[in-house]
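Why run this: before we spend reagent on co-expression, it is cheaper to look at a predicted model of the complex and decide which construct boundaries make sense. The entries below are exactly what would go into the expression plan.
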Amino acid sequence: MKLNGAAILIECLIEQGVGTVFGFPGGAVLPIYDELYQRMDRISHVLTAHEQHAGHAADGYARASGKTGVCIATSGPGATNLVTAIATAYMDSSPVVFITGNVPQSLMGTDSFQEADITGMTMPVTKHNYLVTSIDRLAETIREAFYIARSGRPGPVLIDIPKDVQLAETEYTPLSGEALIPQLSIKKPLTQLRPEGEALEMYKTKAQPRLEKAAQLIAEAHRPLIYCGGGVALSGAQGELMELAERIDAPICATLMGLGVPAGSERMLGMIGMHGTHAANIAMQRCDLLIAVGVRFSDRALGNAAAFAPNAKVLHIDIDRAEINKNVSTTLHITGDARVVLDLLLSRVSQKNHASWMTQARSVEEEQAPSERFEPRQILQSMAKVAPCMTVATDVGQHQMWTAQHFPFLRPHQLITSGGLGTMGFGLGAAMGAAKGDGEGRPVTLVTGDGSFRMNLTELSTIAHYSIPVIVVIFNNGTLGMVRQWQTLFFGHRYSQTTLDRGPDFMKLADAYGLEGTRVDSVEAFAAAFEKAYASGKPCIIECMLDIDEMVAPMVAPGSPIDSFCLN
Amino acid sequence: MYIQTDNHPRYTVGVLVDNEPGVLSRVSGLFFRRGFNIDSLAVGPTQDPEVSRITLVVRGDEAKIEQLVQQLYKLICVQKVQVMSNRNSVERQLLLVKVSATVSEREGLMRLVDIFKAKVLDVTKNSMVLQVSGDNDKLASMLSLLADYGILELVRTGVVALERGDGVMTSDIFD
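The model came back. Tokens follow.
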């Protein structure tokens, strides 16, 4: 059938199984929104208040659902507003397809109204991007974009479609199943799906020597430690990872993005890094074999790279070859999908017993002085008691680290957080996307700070309008707490521009948006409010009044060895 | 990442890329943001109209070059990357130079043209345009000799290189 470019785009989205898109209309995407209007029975659209949050919503949707998120914005400012969301998705390997309109090609390059070179701007923060110059390439480009976004190491892909391409017509043939997989000019690990059948046999042959060596390293190790990252969650390798830990009798530590993988296991020492647990950070420095799976050795996890895991041989398993030897030199690496590699490795390692190492690693005490104050740990523990499996999104700052430390995550992707880019303002969009991405419509909690929340509270109108079940828990300490913490520790208590003594009154704000708001200053009041909110399944705000000098501990100063704590 | 790499060895890197708009920008942008210094860059089509070949000369230690190769592979438009050493490859660069040359100086210049197997492309009363090709060392010594006459303007293509022998550019990207 003959369709215009805008219609082909929407049909291609439906073809990919996209049920929900997030976005904001504008002049250069009018044809797209017109075709969307005519297909509202087959695809739904969430209108946000700002393009950035539509981008974060698509990202949150992708993380929660395991599908590819989709976000649409217009040319110029609509497109540039997406840049932060795109960079956020890129740093955390989240599969999102961003679609922008652009001015007609006849006007491109003339500085016309709302024109921006968004492909040029987003090259460094996309896995790939496209400027579609001909209607003949449109359907193929969209299929390729979806494939690239979710294959290999996932990531965002942007498609910029000039208005004349949206309006031009061509023959469109719907495709499904295998036919949707594009013929890329070259196959690379980066753009490959998990190997199966013949591809798996080929992979086995190639990987064999490295797998043998890895098995040998494991056999020789006395103090192995598994270091688990977001790649394990993305590849769905938690079962294999836990089995390996049992088999080789090793403790596990996780990165921020890997939390929830080693769920409820006694082997889990906690998060590694700047705000990691004593047990995890100390084990890192004592281990003699570090088995790093799906991690990228971020500086926030490493502390001082030169002093990192000084006694250990490093076995690095990752799908992205460029991560190998990037920040830390490895003894041996295996490039590939974590689930496939761990599965192949499991067949080569025998049962080990490292009882004394396990005891040593686990015996490190965490200092958790009981507190009289109303403090973050109590809030998070009380939240987990009510809804242990609930998806929790965060913004960025102290509340994010407290959530990572004190909420016992039980499954991969239960925590939705901006780990790599550290985007304040990520949370509300991401939480609403995650709630839309939850097949059963269960509530999602956003833990945010008063600073972060002021960057995205405009989306309260969106969650209110669509009744998206997001419980907004604001940790209000009247300051940009993480920055204040650094000013306390490293800048002589000079609180430059971090005190937030200027409102708004979040309860009045909730009222303005027609949401229920509760302000609490005790853990009992919080528990009651949260229980009620969770049961209601309605969006609402719970504001927790915290002390301005509450700190995130433990802490390792940036650039210090990971076991040299400046706060306990 | 932004480490001064001037004292490090030179590597010549051949890159096969999709012949599409924006590819050069993707490759050069990557070099800039990852902190690699490019000494020279040359690009042109190959025998396959859908494939272009970029030749880069970069400096860095082995780890840095490994990282560069792997980062290049992450670009969807990059098909193959090959690091060439001086021993196993031939490389050439073309230089056009406009030299100040009075009538009395022409003869001396012509001797240099002869020695360096250069070509004279244009002559006026006051200047000559010469074409010289060769490796870096040859061009450098030609330029130092021409400096005595006065170099008015010069342009060079950047290094292009091919591996010696029958082999053509292949790469196993698994490792």
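Chain A has 23 helices and 22 strands. The interface with chain B takes residues 119-120, 123-124, 127-128, 131, 148, 184-186, 188-191, 206, 320-322, 324-326, 329, 335 of chain A (CB under 8 Å). Bring this page to Monday's planning discussion.
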